[in-house]
Write a structure and sequence with these properties.
single chain; alpha+beta; Hypothetical upf0131 protein ytfp; 2 domains; five-stranded mixed beta barrel; 3 helices; 12 strands; disordered N terminus
Length: 241
């Protein structure tokens, strides 16, 4: 895995780009390029990143470019002070779970079942935008309504999964009728070296636009827990009529 870091002062003649190669145990190689060359590289990077994101959504792949913001950094959103861009190969999809698939919740065992595929916990995180997280239907199912700007910032967990687990999750979440798999921006709360606390990343999430008219006005939660005092325990699928 390689990481690119760019520090580009607005009026400096040269911009310094640092390549960090994990396989070289953190050994740094530095070189200087002109601001004009850096501007061209920024443009190319932006185009490639946008095209890659479209490919992710079209072909159900995780993003090759994983932009993450370093805590306290300042940047312009493409390259800039405080931004680092990670290119990971081979590609592994990442999924944000916020409901019954979280640790300690009724369906977490499905993430651990090797027959469903592989899932590796990476970090806890909050959505950067507010969304309504509601508990609905007679079975008390948690739903993340795809209504950015409403509700609260939602807390959940990031997992890296293989294609088999992703296919299982698509079927488990009844995509696209009940939930839709989309991309969400997250702020990492507690993660490792690849996802440090405070960094911003994009992953898949199962949210929905298939909700009843009264759901958005119902109680919204920041963090789901079936065992909480809300009095709406999840009804297991095996117990449903």
């Amino acid at each position: 895995m390689a990481m690119l870091r760019s520090n580009v002062p607005a009026r400096n003649k040269f911009a310094t780009v640092t390549f960090l190669t994990k396989n070289m145990k953190g050994k740094k190689k530095r070189f200087a390029i002109s601001n004009r060359c850096c501007a061209v590289l920024r443009f190319v990077y932006a185009v490639v990143s946008a095209a890659r994101l479209q490919t992710c959504l079209r072909h159900d792949l995780s993003c090759a470019f994983r932009p993450t913001r370093e805590p306290g950094g300042k940047g312009d959103g493409v390259w800039g002070n405080g931004w680092k861009h990670t290119v990971s190969l081979p590609l592994m999809p990442r999924v944000f779970v916020y409901g019954t698939l979280k640790r300690g919740q009724p369906n977490h065992y499905r993430m651990l079942d090797a027959t469903n595929g592989k899932a590796e916990f990476l970090a806890t995180a909050l959505t950067t935008q507010r969304y309504p997280l509601v508990i609905a239907t007679e079975y008390n199912i948690p739903f993340l309504l795809n209504l950015p700007g409403q509700g609260q910032r939602v807390r959940g967990e990031i997992y890296e999964v293989d294609e088999r687990m992703l296919a299982f999750l698509d079927a488990f979440e009844s995509v696209p009728s009940m939930y839709q798999r989309t991309v969400v921006d997250l702020e990492v709360e507690d993660g490792g070296a690849e996802l440090p606390p405070g960094s911003i990343t994009q992953v898949f999430v199962y949210s929905t636009t298939s909700y009843q008219p009264d759901w958005p006005s119902g109680r919204s939660f920041q963090s789901y827990d079936t065992h909480s005092d809300h009095g709406l325990p999840y009804v297991y699928r095996e117990a449903r009529d």
